[in-house]
Design brief:
Number of strands of chain B: 1
Order of helices and strands of chain A: EHEEH
Strand content of chain B: under 5%
Number of strands of chain A: 3
Number of domains of chain B: 1
Largest sheet of chain A: 2 strands, antiparallel
Oligomer: heterodimer
Radius of gyration of chain B: 21 Å
Helix content of chain B: 55-70%
Number of helices of chain A: 2
Shape of chain B: globular
Radius of gyration of chain A: 22 Å
Strand order of the largest sheet of chain A: 2-3
Order of helices and strands of chain B: EHHHHHHHH
Largest interface: A-B, 35 and 31 residues
Structural class of chain B: mainly alpha
Distance between the termini of chain A: 30 Å
Distance between the termini of chain B: 30 Å
Helix content of chain A: 40-55%
Number of helices of chain B: 8
Strand content of chain A: 5-15%
């Protein structure tokens, strides 16, 4: 069984969560990679343990974007639990409910 | 596509737990792009720092005695080739996954890389299921789900006359 329905809330959750995740990992990652060492998200240290190069983008900003993406998915999940969706073909006639106008 | 339901008393409505097609497609694509970025970043970093002279032979030589020892030490016999193929391969695998081109072929080589890392890194202090194995499983997942078909260029490539006349290519695409 699968449903192919998406509504505005699905689209918003996908766009916002995906945007944050891709920005936090790929977008800022491109900046970090091509803007000289470090190419990762941690400072470069020499043999004496001294920091010789700091990341261009603060890793806390990047992890915040990733966590934000997860929180969007959580909010979406809570919304879906609170307001379940009736799938096509499974809805029942409910006399108490007036048809929407 | 009737969407009328009683929002005031949700439990009166059926609660569907079916797989959502659009969400599944979306998430497979997200996994694909992020897995691709992982390898692209690794490959491009090597290219920027050491060009086509990445030193991989020592690592592979150190794998003698492991499960993949024979393969690793065989590969270590070609240090110049490896110095170019490792950074170029990682970059190509990453680009393939991010754009969704030849995803199954790229994922096969990604799984090969990760098999060597899983066995070679041998970071088993917290058990056999570690992030290297998880990365390996992601590449297998890309193959099983034909991840390039979702928001990827393989969806378009598979519709070309060339591929439709050669259906076996779908084992490399998709």
């Amino acid at each position: 069984m699968q449903s192919n329905d998406v509504d505005l809330v699905d689209r918003l959750a996908m766009a916002l969560s995906g945007g944050l995740l891709l920005l936090g990992v790929v977008g800022t990652g491109l900046v970090e990679t091509f803007d000289g060492p470090p190419r990762g998200a941690a400072p470069v240290t020499n043999d004496a343990g001294q920091v010789v190069a700091q990341p261009t983008v603060d890793p806390n900003v990047r992890t915040a974007l990733v966590v934000g993406a997860l929180l969007v998915l959580l909010a979406y999940a809570l919304y879906r639990i609170a307001v379940p969706r009736v799938e096509a073909g499974t809805e029942r006639a409910t006399p108490e409910t007036q048809p929407g106008d | 596509m009737g969407m009328s339901y009683d929002a005031a008393t949700p439990l009166r409505n059926d609660v569907g737990l079916e797989l959502s097609g659009p969400w599944a497609a979306y998430w497979v694509a997200m996994l694909r792009v992020l897995t691709g970025w992982w390898f692209f970043h690794s490959g491009v970093g090597k290219l920027l720092d050491s060009g086509l002279n990445f030193g991989a032979a020592g690592y592979l030589q150190g794998m003698s005695g492991t499960t993949l020892g024979p393969l690793a030490t065989f590969l270590a016999g070609f240090p110049d080739l490896l110095g170019a193929l490792v950074p170029l391969g990682e970059t190509a695998i990453g680009l393939g996954l991010m754009f969704g081109v030849l995803v199954r072929l790229a994922s096969f080589f990604g799984a090969l890389f990760m098999s060597l890392f899983f066995v070679g890194n041998a970071s088993f202090g917290h058990g056999l299921v570690n992030s290297d194995l998880m990365g390996l499983l992601l590449f297998v997942t890309m193959i099983v789900f034909a991840a390039g078909r979702y928001y990827g260029l393989d969806a378009l490539i598979e519709r070309t006359e060339f591929v439709r006349n050669r259906p076996r290519l779908k084992y490399l695409l998709g």
